[in-house]
Each structure stands twice: as C-alpha cells, then as structure tokens.
Structures
1.
Amino acid sequence: MTDQKPFAGKLALVTGASRGIGAATAEVLASAGAHVVLVARTASALEAVEDRIHDAGGSATIAPLDLTDADSVAKLAAAIGERWTALDLLVLNAAMLGSLTPVEHIDAKEYGRVLTTNVLANQALIAAFDPMLRRAERAEVVGLTSSVGREPRAFWGAYGSSKAALEALLIAYADETAHSGRVRVHVVDPGATRTRMRQLAFPGEEPDSVKAPEVVAAAIMERLLGDAPTGERVRIDA
C-alpha cells in the first residue's frame, strides 16, 4: 500500500458497475490500486468500463450475471474464492427503481422484482462473501440507499420500502460484525445524482442541474480512507 495507491493489492467487487455511480466507483477504486470485479447484467457495458480502467493503468475483471439468481451469486463467490483469499471492498450499488405509483396500484410481480434486486440479492451477496470479508485485514462494505428509504414519499412506496429494508440489513450486519473490528459498513445516500435511474424518476429534470456520479465516487473513496464508524448512514450532497 502507498499514499498514491492506498488500495494496492486489495480486491474490490462492485455491483451495478456498468454505468453511473457503480462505474464511477469502480474506476476510482481501480485508480487507487484495487483489482476490481465488475458485476452487472450487460457484458458490453462492463467491457467499456473495464477498458477505461485498463487504459488508465488499473486492473479489473468483468463478471456479467443476473444478481437476482441466487445460484449465480453463489457461483460468483466460489469462482472468486478460488482465485483470491479475501475480499477487501464490497460495493452494493445495483438497484431497480420500478414504477412510481400509489401503494394500492403496486404490481405484485414488479414489486417482487424490486425487492429481489434491492434487498434479497444484496443479502445473498453479503452471505456469500462474508467468509472472504472476514479474512480481509480490514473489509469495507458500502451499500447505496435513498432518502425515500428513511423519509417515505407519495408514489415511492415500492422503491422506498426496499431501501428501508436494505438499510436495516446493512446496519444489522454492521452491529453483528463490529466486535471483530475488521468489517466496516457504510450506508450511503448519494442524493440527487446524474444517473439513468434519476432520469427515469425525474424525466423533466435538466441533467446538468444535479451532480455527476464521479462526485459520489470521490466521496465514497474519502469515506473509505477516513475513520468513519461502522453502521453510519451518510448523505452526499453537492
């Protein structure tokens, strides 16, 4: 580890790494020396992120898969465990917005997909990689949340409830691992950010009126390098 490459020799896994906050975070972790495993559904988009990392002198591996498939998560953990001993950084960024609609109009099948993507898949990732996280000298888990998880808003019931559940899981995991002093959990609300999900939620909004994903990635990096306590929830404003 060096001051210029604080994560040299470290292994990171970032979900939703094909674009937006996930891609920006993967790139900043790679620039800090980590080897980054890029996870998302679309191989071509992951390859573009991987190319940018390699062009900048970093190191990355793509892992295209559907996180809602529990078998795929288990296979990913097994494959990574065969190559590396420990996982130092786990960034849980992948999420599904779903339809913004009154609670009584929520489609059960779509709601199931939202909960599976935003909650169950993240629990499966934590469960699958927990042994590798505990073998790290110091592991960092970052979970991306939303203000509507803590402050419910009309029409955001499906997405908001999924993020509330995710926060509960992350903070519980932080409490459960705190005694070891080797796993630190960060619950990060990125705030208004220029992402595809933001565009879907606010189609009339001028994109340049909100911050770029790189701002969030830089704030996450600053937090990882600092002495923030485990289980803390933080909001990143411009």
2.
Amino acid sequence: MTRTGGAGALLLLRHGQSVSNAADVFTGWSDAPLSDLGADQARGAAAALRALGVRPTSVHTSLLRRSIATAELVMHELGRGWVPVHRSWRLNERHYGALTGRDKRAVAAEAGAAEFRAWHRSYAVAPPPMSEDDAAAMYADARYAALPAQARPRTESLADVRARQLPYWSDVLYPEVLAGGTPLVVGHGNSLRAFVMHLEGMAPAEVERLDIPTAVPMRYRLDRLGCPVAEPGGRYLDPVGAREPVRIGR
C-alpha cells in the first residue's frame, strides 16, 4: 500500500520518577505520587518541548497520579494548561498482579532470574494474579467505578496492555493526528512500549529489549495511514537524556 501525504504528530512521554520507582518496587496500577526528582524531570521534559517549539494540541493521561502530575507540570511550564485533557484507564501502566508493591530485588531472589525476567520483561507472560481481596480493594476506588468487571485485570502481560490500548489509538489518538493535531500521551514504561511496538511494527522479541527513558519526550511524525515518517535526529527530543540508563515497567 502506498503512503499518501502527511498528517500530524504523536508525542509520547513517560512520567517522571515516582516514590515507588525510587524504592525499586513493582508499581503497576498502585497510585504512587511523583518524587521531587520526578517533578524536576517533568519540568525538564517541558523545556525540551519548548526549545523545539513543540506545542501539544491535547493531553492524554492514565488514571494514575504520577501520569497526571507529570502532564500538569509539563503543560503549566509550556503555558498550555488550557488545551483539552483526556484520562483513560486504557493508558494505565501494566497491572503487575501479586507483585504489586513488592520489592524487585526480593522477588528476583525468591523467583529466580529466569522467572523474574519473564514477569518483568516478556511480551506474553503475566505475573501471578492479585488476590481477589486485594483486587476488590483496588477497584473500590471511585476512579474505577464505571469500569466493567471484565475490564478490571488482576494481572497483565505486555500483550494484554497492547490489546486494551489499541482502541484508544484507533478511536481517539489517530483521528486527532489525522486531522493535523499533536496529542501528547503521558504514560508509563510498559504502556509506552506497547504504543511503540504498534507504531514501529516490532516483533515480541524486539519489544522485550526496548527501554523507554524517564521523562524524555518522543515525537512520531505520522503519515495519513498512521505510519511513522523518518525525521532527522531521531524521535527523541532530548537525545542526551534518552541515552541515560533507565529501568522500565513501573
């Protein structure tokens, strides 16, 4: 199929460091706030966007406060707090099931390197499910009141994350890009891995090796079929920050 013409651009941004990131625990759908460093990282992301004259036309976040706070800091710094804001559970981080809130080093020591890596990095393997009691407590939160029972995971693989995100891409983000807009998605390590996998046509083995830098904006210029168009200098708007060591999946 021949690609025809250009559309808009999609901006992807992983949230700044949370207090759970700093403690090196599995965070998932638990609602950890940003650390002081995470707030500074969000302001740095805004500076990178401002330096290149990038102006988001809308903002899309998960229902988790580390995503929301990062987006609010970025848009305040850009002086664009007036643009439309959308929040969706479909943009939440991967649900880590029974690992939620657990120290990663303790889990690795208990499970062994191979199983830990499968839970942490694989495309198709989900961690052990969260208990029914813990899940009931999580979904008693008012933000999930309208979420159908079948959409309330007790654990997820990256494949599951991709499946729940694709409708948001096709129904919300792609139409805005097609109309020439520049939506900013402030997501999480795994939710953004799923987006990149879809946009770039990655195989599972490729996405398992993919790292998403903390608070480094990514820009995808897309054609009218939603396919990435190569741009000089790469897709990261802060190439130096993108090369810094990061950990994913929080």
